[in-house]
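Structure tokens please, single chain.
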Amino acid sequence: MKVCEFIAEFNNMNENDKGEFINNHIVTDYVPYEKKITICKNIIENTVYENRDIDGEIEKVFKINSCARYMYYVLWIIKLYTDIEIEFTDGEGLKAFNLLNKDCLIDAIIGMISEKEINEFDKILSMTFDDFLTNEHDIVSYIDNKLMNVRNLVNLFIGQLQESVTNMSSNNIVQTFNRKSK
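Here you go.
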């Protein structure tokens, strides 16, 4: 069911039927642990970097966006446990969040989902974020990643040099080195 349809039906109901209506749209009571981990990693990856144009090239720059992380968290909970269709492309996620939030439906929907499931999802998201910071932005990780980048560049250079030298005769190699050393 689309978000707009869900809200329209909800708003046209008798107050006494609204809780049952929400409960009828809860379609699962358990999401597998590995799926929660995958989704939490996706949430973190999409909320810790910002794309910036640096000298005509788009680069990912480390910038934590906790507000976006909360929005994605809420929308993924709703998407996983209900039959409400949530889209994340072209600003649709923000639009869905605002529509649900405007009518106080976020808390109402999440309140109908198992507290154990919500707590576990919270813990996994928190652990995933902590792991990201430790693995990606701890000083040791930072240095390790930079060294790996240097190693990759050196290997690329050596590979290209080896390819060039392989196609040269020994006389051409000697002449090239003699010219470069003068």
